Amino acid sequence: MTEQQGPRRLRGATGFGQALAARMGGRWLNAAAGLVLVGTVAAGLASAPAGGSAAQDEPKPGGTLNAAISADPVNLDPHLSSAYSTFQVLENVYNQLVGLDDDLQLVPELAESWTVSDDKLTYTFKLRPGVAFHNGRELTADDVVYSYERIRNPDTKSGWAYLMEPVDTIEAPDPQTVVVTTKEVYAPLLTKLASQGTAIVPREEVEAETLDEKPVGTGPFRFVEFVPADRVVLERNETYWEEGKPYLDGIVFRPIPDETVKQTNLETQNVDWVDNVPAQDANRLMESPDLVVESVAGTAYTYMGVNTTRKPLDDKRVRQAISYALDREEIAAIALYDLALGSQSPVPEGNFWRSEYAPQGRDLDKARQLLQEAGVGDGFPVEFMPAQDYPETVRSAEAAQAQLADVGIEATLRPLEWSTWLDEEGQGNFDIYLCGWIGMVDPDDYFYAQHRTGEVFNFTGYSNPELDELLDRGRQSLDDNERKGIYDQIQQILIDDAPYIVLFTTTEVDAWQPYVKGFTTRPDSAVIFKNAWLDR
User: Fold this and answer.
1) At what angle do helices 316-325 and 391-404 cross, to 10 degrees?
2) How far apart are CA 454 and CA 449, in angstroms?
């Protein structure tokens, strides 16, 4: 998600729900190597009214926005964190060479232009002049080279190194030029360079060993302080390179894990903006004249990650049996009501890259047969590890627990606080964890980091040489139809092998006070406040 413009993890209501599709006005957009359906709901889950992000009023500078998020950041170094709660903060502090706009189209960021060689192996970027880090030093091409080399250096242990694997060389022929050369054609390179995990950092701050606690970027807001379990404070970057922005004087992010408490804080105006609303209350809140609730078709999914190194879960027949025993629609309804759609594929309905291969609908007889064949016909105990800061994972685990009991699988729950959950996942201390990935743009984002042998985010221990070869081919093809065939094969293998048991895809929903203007809910779940302002 935990894992996240590139994939990140995790949040509440994100993604795409078929229950909304019939009411969704949208359009297909070419998202730099992939098609992504975006739009706002035309009825039912309504888009923002005139008082929301669609307003055309003249922005007013000043004021501090109080934003409620679901969890504390986990490590403020952009190259060392993959937590969504971290990037909710950092995407307002850092920039990348290129970015994604609200429609997931590539746009210039620190690079004001770029060219690609005829053989598609060499990318030449021209930097925007006059950009300064928050410490006052001017950005140069050497900072880009340093940042990228740091990410791909094995000693850094960056989870984002997989983004750079096909890169051969990174050079700075002059202070305003960066040249990236790849070993072979790398179809999603530009999209990968828009990932928050490739943020450009100043070398001196890394060497001072303070970046994980005091981030220093070139973005619209400067870091002020982080008080765990209380707040993260950002202030306006007075020297930001986009003239006139940001409009806000500052942002205070407040971690509020309990979604009901978060909603109460919004309704009583103790906070100005929240990163989700309780799914069961979404429709009621959308009808309130006192709030703006905006939804958009997204790209996220929630899943079970199965430890394939533990018996009996190392037998794919057992993993398949678990999948056959699940009623995904019921789990989706319990977890997120009508903001989710049961799915066997992580790619949402309506997305070009989705495979319709879905053999594992609920079939208890098939599940029992597979358990019998695997030698565990009488069932077995298993532990679920949801993240307590993300209540939909707990509700999903409870629903799955009841369903698996029908085939003799006795599940217990071990919900953990977010930072502890991440540690346990990273150490492999789980039977089955529940989590979500967000921010996918290219089809590679759904599969490579999660399932290729030995990748940092492959926490399940899964390995399949045939899949590895397909994942590599998917990165190297520039033909969408050829890539579609490859990713269809990838999805079939993963559904059959079930290292991830996908539960549902979901809908992105944010809410705010009517006086908050200029904010847009994005399909990739990014939280960017450089255009936001307060009309009060």
Assistant:
1) 100
2) 9
Q: Report pLDDT for 523.
A: 87
CA Rg, the chain, in Å? 22
Residue type, 89: V
Query: Among all chains, which residue has been given the structure tokens 């967000």?
Result: 438
Q: Which amino acid is at 350?
A: G
> Closest Cα partner for 391 from 281, 486, 292?
281
User: Under a CB-based contact definition with an 8 Å cutoff, are residues 67 and 210 in contact?
Assistant: no
Q: What is the DSSP letter of 174?
A: E
Peptide bond into 312 cis (omega under 30): yes
- Give the whole-angstrom CA distance, residue 427 versus residue 294: 37
What is the Cα–Cα distance from 131 to 526, expressed in whole angstroms?
Answer: 23
Query: DSSP letters along 7-43, please?
Result: -BB--SS-S--HHHHTTEEEEEEE-SSSEEEEEEESS
Q: Are 85 and 74 in contact (CB under 8 A)?
A: yes
- Sequence-distant (≥ 6) Cβ neighbours of residue 230 within 8 angstroms: 254, 255
Per-residue pLDDT reduced to its tens digit, 350-370: 899 999 999 999 999 999 999
For 107, the token pair is 């746009």
- 3-state SS class at 182: strand
How far are the Cα atoms of 104, 337, 348, 439 from residue 297, in angstroms, in the given order?
12, 16, 9, 12
Burial class (CB in 10 A: 0-12, 13-18, 19+), 123: buried
* pLDDT, tens only, 447-491: 999 999 999 899 999 999 999 999 999 999 999 999 999 999 999
SS3 letters across 105-162: CEEECCEEEEEECCCCCEEEEEECCCCECCCCCECCHHHHHHHHHHHHCHHHCCHHHH
In angstroms, the CA 28 to CA 38 distance is 7
Asked if residue 534 lies in contact with residue 516, where contact means CB atoms within 8 angstroms, the answer is yes
Judge if the upstream peptide bond of residue 10 is cis by omega within 30 degrees of 0.
yes
Where is 184: in which H helix or E strand?
Answer: none
pTM: 0.82
- Sign for the pseudo-dihedral over CA of 50, 52, 55, 59: positive
